[in-house]
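Worked Example 4.2. Consider the chain below.
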Amino acid sequence: MVLTERIDAGAAAGVRQAIEVLAGRRIAVLTGAGVSTDSGIPDYRGEGAPRRTPMTAQTFLADEAARRRYWVGSHLGWKAFAAAEPNAGHAAIAALERTGVATGVVTQNVDGLHLRAGSRRVVELHGTMRRVLCTHCGQVFDRRDVGERLERENPWITVPDRVQLGPDGDVLPASSEGFVVPDCTVCGGVLKPEVVFFGEFIPAEKFREAEQLVATSGALLVAGSSLVVNSGIRLVERARRRRIPVVIVNRGETRADRRATVKVDAGTSEVLAALADELPAPRGSGAL
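Applying the procedure from the previous section yields the following structure tokens:
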């Protein structure tokens, strides 16, 4: 493959460096919102990202009006969010896993696109929008079932064909007046998507799983994350302490650029596809 066919000349040099650094190593992959932008899901901080005030866990649980606004916006965006398809970057990561190059992927995204692309070992650090849980009894529901119930209890609600989708699958609703928020059918408790809201901690067992992935790999590849969220920067630090290479692929600056072995300022889809094409399976990797 000729790198310049997919990547501009400036980024191609960085990709060649990344290939040299990663060749022969088993790689843990950490992804952020930038991996999903080519699937039509905007990121949080990139150029053109919609301005938003994220819902905090404290506000969601304490304020009934805030919960109504959240559920209206989340439902309006769910149709478009759920219809998003994996892109070339997701496919490349799945291919790297199949060939034994990638040990798995840790993602800060809640869109489920890595699993749909065929990745097998996926650590969803911030949860998933596919499920809804009761904050009181812990019962878990399929998001589609909750959506159907929500529309039965709010028959006036209309989901538009085109919405300004947010990174977590939400939109800013014009109004939430009169909206009936579904509650838990088991105990009547408050329902929330199975995602980590701002102000919540990542479950300890989930972060340990991510740490283990880094600990058993020979390099860390960060794709599409500015590493502003602490969970990502902590994993970079784990890799640095083990003195394994850290390669970052992201448009624009990240918090760890100075700590990276190689930084490639380019789109994730084309760079990840190039890495999947060029990186050989490590010896004894047990590639399928």
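The chain has nine helices and nine strands. The mean pLDDT is 87. Compare this with Example 4.1 before moving on.
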